[in-house]
Amino acid sequence: MSSDVGTTTRTLSDETLSRRRYFREKQREYRRKLIADGAAIEAEVFHLQSILDGLQAKSLPSVREARDSKLSWRSIAMVFKSEAHRVLTDRESLVTKMQVLESLKRAMQNFVMMNIAAVTEEVVANTRLFCTTTADGAFMNTLQGQFVEADRLVLVFRQVEDDEVHSCHFTLRQTCRSS
């Protein structure tokens, strides 16, 4: 019996020790979590304080009133000066953005004019007029005539040297190739 009592006592003490060890670890984890949360909160406070300082520096100074409870000329001048500075800053950014957009628009227009072959075709009865822009920027007016007879078909191609109706764009050059 005495050996049973020793075994049970040892078992109870082992359970008690393991329970104590478990709760000790839980307490340590809880304390570590509190320390980590505190550090995170301090970092957040520091960050928000820096944002607040920046916003307060940008905000308008307090308005001082004159003796007769009207606004002083210094307060009005300060407000005008800060607003003029803000407007100039906004204008600079808008002008820069506008210049970027203008250059993008010009580049897009040049791309379209140089890379997309604009072939316009005008058809009247048995003739066709082709207005073509080549890849190297040359503009050509070509006239095609198609004449059908009983036993033959005659195709005539002529290049129009100058056509006031279908003139080329000022950035292109008109070419006439004779063969």
Keywords:
179 residues, alpha+beta, 3 domains, five-stranded mixed β-sheet, 2 helices, 56% helix, elongated
Q: What topology emerges from the helices and strands here?
A:
Blueprint: H1 2-58, H2 73-115, E1 120-124, E2 127-133, E3 138-148, E4 153-160, E5 173-174
Parallel strand pairs: 3-5
Antiparallel strand pairs: 1-2, 2-3, 3-4
Describe the structure.
The chain has 179 residues and is of the alpha+beta class. It has 3 domains: 1-59; 62-116; 117-174. It is built from 2 helices and 5 strands; from the N terminus they run ααβββββ. Strands 1, 2, 3, 4 and 5 form a 5-stranded mixed beta sheet that branches. The radius of gyration is 44 Å and the shape is elongated. The model has no long low-confidence stretch (mean pLDDT 80).
Q: What characterizes the major β-sheet? A: 5 strands, mixed
Domain tally: 3
Shape: elongated
Q: Strand content of the residues, in percent?
A: 15-25%
Global mean pLDDT = 80
Summarize the structure.
Helices cover 56% and strands 18% of the residues. With 179 residues, it is α+β, with helices and mostly antiparallel strands.
